[in-house]
Amino acid sequence: MWTIDEESAKTYKKLEADYNRRVLSMTNNLQYVKNIGQAFNAHLDYVVAVRKLTKELLDSLNLPDRDEIASIAKRVRALETRLDDLDEQIEESKNQMINHQKQIRKFSQEMAELSKQLVDSE
User: Fold this and answer.
1) Phi/psi class of residue 65: alpha, beta or left (left: φ > 0; alpha: ψ in -120 to 50)?
2) Is residue 85, in this structure, part of any structural domain at all?
3) Is 92 a domain residue?
4) What is the block-wise mean pLDDT of the chain (122 residues), using blocks of 10 residues?
């Protein structure tokens, strides 16, 4: 593992402090703030224009945009959840049917035994 000796650490800290002072001196003025604000506004205008053009292109090609795809994805997730719930209900119903069939078989056997006993007792 790489380690830093004390002298190198001091040199690094001094270099970092000098760098921070220079960055602060360049950025801590009104003109810099105005320029950055203008750059951000220009970028925002660009992003808005690109989104508008993209939407117009998608509309002209009759393709869905991001919001429509997100809406469809949300509906698909809801349908998947409903299908999962229905699968669970079907499985529960299947298990109940199997249990009912077993009970019916048992009841039929008991009825057959009772019928046989009745015939034998006559």
Assistant:
1) beta
2) no
3) no
4) 78 92 87 93 98 95 94 97 97 97 95 89 78
72 vs 34: CA distance, rounded Å: 42
Q: Which residue has the tokens 């220079």?
A: 22
Distance from C-alpha of 79 to C-alpha of 100, rounded to nearest angstrom? 31
Q: Is the full-model pTM beyond 0.70?
A: no
Total tally of structural domains belonging to the chain: 1
What is the span of the domain harbouring residue 26?
7-63
Question: Is residue 73 in some structural domain?
Answer: no
Do residues 40 and 46 lie in contact, with contact meaning Cβ atoms separated by under 8 Å? no
26 near 20, Cβ under 8 Å?
Answer: no
Please give the span between the terminal C-alpha atoms of the chain, in angstroms, as a whole number: 99
CA dihedral angle for residue 66, residue 67, residue 70, residue 74, rounded to 10 degrees: -170
